Write a sequence for this structure.
């Protein structure tokens, strides 16, 4: 399975984050910040994507369909911090994106909102398809790493390096 992340150097996410994730990093200067993630869809292939603030702590689940995160606080919303994207879904997102990136960046607060609209619920959720495998550091790890967890998603603060990369128990 092709494993990708988007990397834009900044004060929070340095090269150590890329190395720890062990995913291939794509850096694309065409679009700022997290929007550089959109370059991944141009490849036209299926891929597993993880934001740099994702820590792999076990064996990764292998979905067979487009799979997004269920928002940890607003469960009716999909998020894009960890997703499996099929080649067909990548093509749909890329065609929509490349038609007018500037307009999309003005309309949406982030790529997650954009992808949620583009795919309009035509996806699964990690938490439904692989219960207990994908967890939130803030929501699930306050008393240690849950047994069976494979992926820890950080969103906001603290950052993974501030928590010993989710290795504490």
């Amino acid at each position: 399975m092709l494993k990708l992340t988007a990397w834009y150097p900044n004060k929070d996410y340095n090269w150590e984050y890329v190395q720890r994730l062990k995913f291939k990093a794509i850096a694309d200067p065409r679009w700022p910040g997290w929007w550089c993630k959109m370059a991944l869809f141009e490849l036209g292939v299926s891929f597993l994507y993880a934001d740099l603030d994702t820590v792999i702590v076990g064996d990764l689940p292998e979905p067979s369909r487009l799979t997004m995160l269920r928002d940890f606080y607003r469960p009716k919303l999909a998020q894009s911090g960890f997703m499996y994207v099929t080649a067909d879904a990548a093509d749909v997102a890329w065609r929509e994106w490349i038609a007018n990136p500037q307009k999309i960046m003005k309309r949406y607060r982030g790529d997650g909102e954009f992808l949620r609209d583009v795919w309009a619920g035509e996806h699964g959720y990690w938490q439904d398809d692989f219960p207990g495998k994908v967890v939130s550091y803030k929501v699930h790890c306050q008393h240690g790493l849950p047994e069976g967890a494979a992926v820890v998603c950080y969103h906001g603060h603290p950052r993974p390096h501030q928590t010993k990369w989710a290795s504490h128990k």
About this structure: The beta strands are 3-6, 24-26, 47-50, 54-56, 67-70, 78-85, 124-125, 134-136, 151-153. Residues 56 and 151 are 5 Å apart (CA to CA). The chain has a mean pLDDT of 92. The longest helix spans residues 87-99.
